[in-house]
Model the fold of this input.
Amino acid sequence: MKTIPLSPPAVPPTARSLLDCSPQELAEVVKALPHQREDAGGRAASVPAYRIRQIQEWIYKKYARSFEEMSNLPKAMRDGLAASATLTPLTPVEQRVSKAGDTQKVLFQMPDGETIEAVLMLYDQRRTLCISSQAGCAMGCSFCATAQGGLRRNLTAGEIVAQVLFFARYLRNAGERPKMRVKRPTTVTNIVLMGMGEPMHNYKNVWTAIRRLTAADGFGLGARHITLSTVGLVPMIDRMADEGLQVNLAVSLHAPNNALRSKLVPPSRRYPVDDLLASVRRYIAKTNRRVTFEYALMRGVNDNPSLAEDLADKLHGILCHVNLIPLNPIPDSSFQPTSDRDTQRFAERLSARGISTTVRIRRGIEIDAGCGQLRNAAES
Ligand code: SAH
Done:
């Protein structure tokens, strides 16, 4: 394991994070720079729109690491920005690559010392990036490593976007370390909000980030390549249905009845399974989009074949797909993964009942790439 020492921040703590700025706010930051005021003889000159476009291009298309690189900006502007603003709020403090060389996990530190994780998974055609939406999580799922530390704080939109830009830069620059064994693609093609945190518990910042990631003058990724995974906060599912973006919805179900689900996923006490499924039906009626249900299989807990039948009953008639995930065992927990054979059987039962089902391949277990595990390992 390699730990990269942290360098002290070169900018004042009051520096503005440009990744947290809308184009209008970006214009205000530039307008407030000293040389702008000089240009106007003491008054702030207005900033031409092309300047803002140039800065956005450096950030979201060229993944600039420093203001110095922004060669088409006047030197005074670059220096002014370097003195008063930051380009990324994230410092990578630990990077791990799986033995197979296809999964990379990064632990990032934020300016206040909080840490989050993101994982890059390379497949033949896709390269999926799993990002965090909160430092920690308040949902308390009993089998999840992130839940163990509770919620530290929400991420800003910029902190969410920064995770994507970090890996976009990594993939674009073939020489960038660490090396991965599989052939390295040059762009991020899919983003899943399945890292630390509950995205719907940080709704506003998550959607600001999604809009910046999908905007033509932002990162420019198609909304259909983004998946938001939720524990099932019903009012927020209804809100997402009205966002008007084709972002995919994944719901972490893990049990077909509320008695069992409430033990695994505490928010289920407030939003019972039937209410949750009703909101999913409303979402589909509005958006016409297929929803994914995630189901982490835990031995002797939620993997009884009769539960597969119950699940098929519950999901009957819903435009959906079920993703079975063999549990990633976590420290200090009695939950164990279902065996491969029983996982297969559970999948077959669902398929036989006409439910589209896949078993998710486990990735990067030995690098603690599952669900809050790297951060916990780093803190222990
Ligand atoms: N809070 C969101 C997104 C983050 S977790 C949610 O609940 O959907 C992403 C997925 O990983 C969820 O389906 C979550 O239930 C699952 N998960 C958490 N801990 C896990 C573990 N130890 N093994 C397998 N899946 C786990």
